[in-house]
């Protein structure tokens, strides 16, 4: 028989947990470091567009992010490790995809270009935050213009000035290097999807409940109709008197079965049988003289009597 | 050959072909600790009979993989997976074993109590509250989104669902999550009663429910088709689990494939359980398992369980506000899908309040609804990360 865990065993489990504490001497009690998820970043170029393919934090399948520049040439786009841009004011969990370093060249010194970043992974609320380690406040909102396209594709357009605050090299040298990435609120995303998913379960099971209630009612009405039809069929059948109950071994003879002549014959035979069994003395009617004639007569009477008795017995 | 050469040869053999020298040092100590842990789980399974069907293969899997130099969880020089790696790769990574377990579970399940009282599906949904609360709480401890989802599903108290989701989203946590799920399923009679008494009054525990209506064989036959259609059309991601579950149930109810149904319930389940347990145990190697995360997972799993029980009870209280015929709130705790233990706990608590109050069949409805609810929650998480 399966048994359940007792309090004593639960205490042993807690002691076991203590073993874990002793076994791992390399980590501290204060924090559990989040493991870096592998983004599997790959880049490809099609004409003037560079496409980044990666598996973002909150997904199991890859997404594509396209980089395009107007007013210059997009030389290169590379991935940047979050560790290099880590600051206490910025939670890297807010960057669901990756950090990118885009290099733009062949522009006039001090001119302005537009960098557009397009993906189906962005939403209207996504921002593009830019990192410039030369500034006191290294992280800043790129204030990108959001353009919505069909099929839930969003385009973020950044306005970049050579030598401006977004230019990582800090110099008006005809080249712009911008380091940054798309940012969504981590907790906003987590809470938002959570509520949607939790109430989604209620919705799914409610739909199933309604389906089952409807099908249950259909089946119950079908069963009821079947029962009603069966009881109607029974009600329409002619009434048949039930046969009297017979005990085992007993043969019941009713008045309808035997006619009066048979009853009289059976009664006479029974009388003769019981009379024969009772009387032991011979009855002499006339004289004690036994002639051959009288002896023959007696024998004949005796023979008929036995036949009657035999008939009763059979 | 000189003595030095002989000694060198012996030393070489010792270090490369035996495990004894590798027990010295920090790695050796960790391996010995894991072997000790495996003995503990085997003791629980054999001596105390706590979930022996799973803890025996899991415990033995832990025992085997923590020996040094064992060719079990690696790849051969030809690139083929070794024994337990093959079980893990083709059974768990390829997501074969958990749906097959659901096939067997479906073949063993009688949905009559749920069909007779479909309202209890809402209780199964409410009992998933802990899953989502724990998901948020886990994020505070620095787990990634996928890891948090795999830890949160522990509260659903459904072993195959936990393994399926964890293998998909955070395979590095498989061992800890599976152990936590099955351990807490064994602790249901310890964890739930105090919460049930806290959340209900003595008068509420005495509520008698009307006997369930009879369910025809035709209804039971059509239920898996209807349920699979509705659930899969709404959450396609849950098709592997729910599809197999309902297929197993359909085989049971149709009555024309008794052989297949018997196989699914018995031989197939036994085979799959052996492979599952060994594979899960094999993931618990010392270097992976001995850190803070399993400890945190065990703690979060307990919290998860408690909130799920609370959620089920709360759901019944809310439903009773709208129902003319009240439900006994004790059946709310059975929304945690530890079938049939949670229903038995509801029954025993009901009997304590009123020896004439038999709640087991009423509690089976939410218990089965919890299985569907936890699979739906897993489907939601999978869809979230797609």
Task: Give the helix/strand layout.
The complex is a heterodimer of chains A (314) and B (386).
Chain A: H1 7-23, E1 42-46, E2 49-54, E3 63-70, E4 73-80, E5 99-105, E6 112-119, E7 127-131, E8 139-141, E9 145-149, E10 153-161, E11 176-183, H2 186-236, H3 260-278, H4 292-313
Antiparallel strand pairs in A: 1-2, 2-3, 3-6, 4-5, 5-11, 6-10, 7-8, 7-11, 9-10
Helix pairs in contact in A: 3-4
Chain B: H1 3-17, H2 26-46, H3 52-65, H4 83-93, H5 97-108, H6 112-116, H7 120-126, H8 129-140, H9 145-152, H10 159-169, H11 174-186, H12 188-199, H13 202-205, H14 217-234, H15 239-254, H16 258-282, H17 286-289, H18 292-320, H19 341-353, H20 360-384
Helix pairs in contact in B: 2-3, 3-16, 4-16, 5-10, 5-15, 5-16, 7-18, 7-20, 8-9, 8-18, 9-10, 10-11, 10-20, 11-18, 12-18, 12-19, 14-15, 15-16, 19-20
Can you put this structure into words, describing what you see?
The complex is a heterodimer of chains A (about 325) and B (about 375). Helix content of chain A is about 35%, strand content about 25%. Chain A contains 4 helices and 11 strands. In chain A, the strands form 2 sheets. A 6-stranded antiparallel beta sheet of chain A has the order 1-2-3-6-10-9, with no helix packed on it. Chain A has a 5-stranded antiparallel beta sheet with strand order 4-5-11-7-8, with no helix packed on it. In chain A, β7 and β8 form a beta hairpin. In chain A, α3 (about 260-280) packs across α4 (about 290-315). The longest helix of chain A has about 50 residues, at about 185-235. Chain A is rod-shaped and about 175 Å long. Chain B contains 20 helices and no strands. The radius of gyration of chain B is 23 Å and the shape is elongated. Chains A and B meet through α1 and α2 of A and α2, α6, α7, α8 and α9 of B.
């Amino acid at each position: 028989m399966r048994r359940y865990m007792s309090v004593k065993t639960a205490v042993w489990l807690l002691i076991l947990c203590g073993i874990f504490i002793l076994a791992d001497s390399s980590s501290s009690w204060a924090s559990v470091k989040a493991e870096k998820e592998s983004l599997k970043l790959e880049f490809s170029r099609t004409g003037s567009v560079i496409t980044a393919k990666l598996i973002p934090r909150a997904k199991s399948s890859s997404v594509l992010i396209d980089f395009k520049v107007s007013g210059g040439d997009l030389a290169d786009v590379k991935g940047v490790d979050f560790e290099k841009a880590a600051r206490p004011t910025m939670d890297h969990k807010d960057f669901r995809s990756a950090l990118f370093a885009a290099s733009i060249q062949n522009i006039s010194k001090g001119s302005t270009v537009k960098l557009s970043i397009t993906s189906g992974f962005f939403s209207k609320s996504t921002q593009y935050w830019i990192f410039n380690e030369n500034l006191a406040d290294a992280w800043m909102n790129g204030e990108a213009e959001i353009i919505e396209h069909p099929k839930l594709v969003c385009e973020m357009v950044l306005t970049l000035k050579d030598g401006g605050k977004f230019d990582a090299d800090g110099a008006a040298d005809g080249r712009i290097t911008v380091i940054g990435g798309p940012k969504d609120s981590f907790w906003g995303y987590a809470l938002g999807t959570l509520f949607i998913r939790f109430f989604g379960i209620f919705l799914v099971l409610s739909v199933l409940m309604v389906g089952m209630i409807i099908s249950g009612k259909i089946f119950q009405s079908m069963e009821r109709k079947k029962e009603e039809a069966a009881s109607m069929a029974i009600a329409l059948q002619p009434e048949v008197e039930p046969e009297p109950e017979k005990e085992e071994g007993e043969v019941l003879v009713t008045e309808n079965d035997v006619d009066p002549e048979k009853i009289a014959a059976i009664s006479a035979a029974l009388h003769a049988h019981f009379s024969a069994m009772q009387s032991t003395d011979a009855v002499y009617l006339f004289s004690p003289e036994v002639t051959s004639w009288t002896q023959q007569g007696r024998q004949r009477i005796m023979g008929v009597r036995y036949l009657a008795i035999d008939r009763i017995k059979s | 050959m000189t003595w030095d050469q002989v000694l060198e040869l012996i030393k070489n053999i010792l270090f490369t072909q035996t495990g004894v020298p590798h027990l010295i040092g920090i790695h050796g100590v960790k391996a010995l600790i894991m072997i000790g842990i495996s003995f503990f789980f085997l003791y629980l399974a054999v001596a105390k009979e706590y979930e022996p069907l799973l803890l025996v293969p899991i415990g033995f899997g832990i025992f085997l993989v923590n020996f040094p130099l064992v060719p079990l969880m690696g790849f051969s020089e030809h690139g083929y997976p070794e024994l337990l790696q093959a079980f893990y790769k083709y059974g768990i990574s390829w997501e074969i074993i958990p749906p097959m377990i659901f096939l067997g579970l479906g073949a063993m399940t009688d949905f009559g109590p749920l069909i007779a009282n479909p309202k209890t599906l809402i209780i199964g949904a409410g009992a998933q509250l802990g899953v989502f609360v724990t998901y948020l709480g886990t994020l505070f401890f620095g787990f990634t989104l996928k890891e948090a989802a795999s830890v949160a599903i522990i509260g659903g108290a459904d072993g195959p669902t936990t393994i399926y989701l964890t293998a998909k989203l955070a395979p590095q946590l498989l061992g800890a999550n599976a152990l936590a799920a099955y351990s807490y399923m064994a602790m249901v009679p310890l964890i739930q009663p105090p919460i049930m008494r806290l959340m209900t009054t003595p008068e509420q525990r005495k509520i008698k429910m009307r006997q369930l209506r009879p369910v025809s064989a035709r209804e039971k036959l059509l239920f898996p088709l209807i349920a699979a259609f509705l659930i899969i059309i709404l959450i396609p991601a849950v098709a592997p689990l729910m599809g197999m579950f309902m297929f197993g149930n359909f085989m049971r109810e149709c009555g024309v494939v008794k052989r297949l149904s018997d196989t699914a319930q018995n031989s197939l389940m036994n085979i799959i359980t052996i492979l599952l347990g060994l594979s899960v145990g094999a993931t618990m190697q010392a270097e992976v398992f001995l850190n803070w995360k399993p400890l945190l997972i065990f703690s979060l799993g307990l919290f998860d369980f408690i909130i799920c029980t609370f959620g089920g009870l709360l759901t019944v209280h809310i439903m009773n506000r709208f129902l003319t015929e009240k439900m006994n709130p004790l059946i709310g705790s059975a929304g945690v899908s530890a079938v049939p233990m949670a229903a038995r706990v509801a029954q025993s608590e009901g009997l304590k309040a009123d020896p004439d109050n038999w709640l087991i069949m009423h509690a089976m409805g939410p218990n089965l609804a919890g299985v569907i609810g936890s699979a739906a929650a897993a489907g939601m998480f999978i869809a979230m990360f797609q």
